[in-house]
Predict the structure.
Amino acid sequence: MAVKLSREEQYGIMALVDLAYNLNGGPAQVRQIAKRQRIPQRFLEQIFAKLRQAEVVVGKRGPRGGYSLAKDPKEIRLEEVMRALRPRLQEDTRTDAPALAELIDKVWSEIEGSFQSTLRGVSLASLCDRARSLGITDASEVLSATERASL
């Protein structure tokens, strides 16, 4: 059983790696990232709105506007990105849950803790390093490499 990312999560991470990979001092426009990564622009705009609200990126308005990373790529962890993009699950507040259900909830919480720890250990900079080690020289190649890896 594999942990699956939603399209929103996958596209959000791809867009952030694109931003980190192409750090050139200025903001990148959503339409440029959308074109390079083959992500629907309207969907990417919604993703960036969530990332901006979570202070993962900063936006600049105007003709030379766009989005930039809010921090150094070494400081942005996948945990932070996932927290911004993954909808919060409502906790079950039942007080009459059977003991077996409580046990399963406890084990699931432990699994989620391990997952969060792993996400905390992966930064955007480390993803860029991995891309370079795969021979990806341009962020527009990130999607094709990801597709190749999943085949």
